[in-house]
Amino acid sequence: MKRREAREKAFQILFQIDMNEMETEDLKAKLEKYETKDPYLSDITHGVLHHKTDLDHHIEQHLKNWSLNRIAMVERSILRIATYEILYVEDIPVKVTINEAVELANKYGDDQSGKFVNGVLSNIVK
Fold first, then answer.
1. Reported pTM
2. Which residue ranges does the record assign to the NusB/RsmB/TIM44 domain (predicted)?
3. Which of 5, 10, 12, 18 is spaced 20 to 30 A from 26 at the CA atom?
């Protein structure tokens, strides 16, 4: 699986977890289904879940006139993945991470999602 595909699958999993407020056992079962398929997918999903509080705090520090709770779940999930990559994955250029996040936002969000995600991530990397 290419990293782009892994990011998209991670987004789908993390969005679903956030949307359904999954219990720990359900979450483990969901993740185990994908863990053996791709190590990068596993790294992203586990990394975001493990560092969720720190990621949310980091994102919130770079929001202008927004709070994390006001952000739609699509954008919030994408921002968590991208912020995780920026902070914890050293072998991916920041520009690639931002571009991939914007692509996901354009695909799954509304017509302003890509611009919003790009703006927040640009603030994070300044």
1. 0.90
2. 4-126
3. 5
Q: What's the CATH code of the domain at 21?
A: 1.10.940.10
Residue 48, Cβ density class (10 Å: 0-12 exposed, 13-18 middle, ≥19 buried): buried
* CA 101 – CA 83 distance, rounded (Å): 10
Per-residue model confidence (pLDDT) at position 30: 64
User: CB within 8 A of 118, min separation 6: which ones?
Assistant: 98, 101, 102, 105
> What is the residue type of 101?
A
In degrees, rounded to 5, the angle at the alpha carbon of residue 84 between the alpha carbons of residues 83 and 90 is 105
Domain coverage including residue 65: 3-125
What is the pLDDT, as a whole number, of residue 103? 97
Q: State how far the Cα of 28 lies from the Cα of 71, in Å rounded to an integer.
A: 26
Q: Provide the pLDDT for residue 4.
A: 93
| 76 three-class SS | helix
**What is the mean pLDDT for each group of 10 consecutive residues in the chain (126 residues)?**
91 85 62 71 90 96 90 96 97 96 97 96 93
